[in-house]
Amino acid sequence: MSSAAATLEVLRAAALVLAGSGGPAALATVIARTGSAPQVVGARLLLRADGTMVGTVGGGAIEQQVLAACRATLRDGSPQVVKAHLVRDLGMCCGGAMEVFVEYLDAQARLILIGGGHVAQALAPVARGVGFRVVVIDDREEVLAHPAFVPDQREQGDVDELEVLLRDLDERDYLVIATRDHARDEQALAQLLTRPHRYIGMIGSRRKVHAILARIVRREQALGRPAPDLARLHAPVGLALGGRTPAEIAVSIVAELLADRHGGSGAPMNVASQALADRYGGSGAPDAAAE
What we know:
The protein is α/β, with parallel strands linked by helices. The chain is built from nine helices and eleven strands. The chain has helices spanning 3-18, 60-76, 118-129, 141-144, 162-165, 182-192, 206-222, 246-262, 272-280, and strands at residues 25-34, 44-48, 53-55, 80-85, 97-105, 110-114, 133-138, 153-156, 174-177, 199-202, 233-234.
């Protein structure tokens, strides 16, 4: 296979990963070489999470070292650079050296908006801007045609069709429920709590959340089933930023999504007071002598 054809094969495999097919992968790229080395700069190898491999960075001991680095990157998501002198470090017959960059690849996180009203219309572009792949579900054709949703995947259907519309739901998906009425919100939440997901948020007041959850739990108990797992439920959805407009609510929701994605607390990062206390002691401010 020519180098161009090999590169194209790896890039196609990487594109499938980024599109959400087959789970994450590690992509290794030769970024430098000196002397006699088995591959050229730009040669690539992709290792999928299931262990299948596409491409090569030269075979032999160097490729085994790169594959070990790929497996480590798949475990923790951290990029790394593999540097090796092929004779001195690896005992290969080639007389050169190689550097290989290994990076983690995965599809954009999917944010599924159940309901396409004013909040969803404000939320979609903000979420896209921070790297979410947005899907909007609503039964109203005119709502799905809103300009805010033009770049997004749009699915027409009501909340009683979610099982069909979201048959590919998995543990990486983020869900935000914001339909046009409380009954639809409740129906959507009751269904989705039992489906795979990473995060579910539901818009509404604290009173609404208490009432809806109480009804869901009572229904499950009446059917002899345990209460649903609420560990990943965020209701009311969003961080308490104080905003009331759809745009402000969208910012608070995306802030919470990012905190979940990156493991953040959502707490303020301000250290100004502590910095002054550390520098000037208990007074918290410089005095004239210090000036």
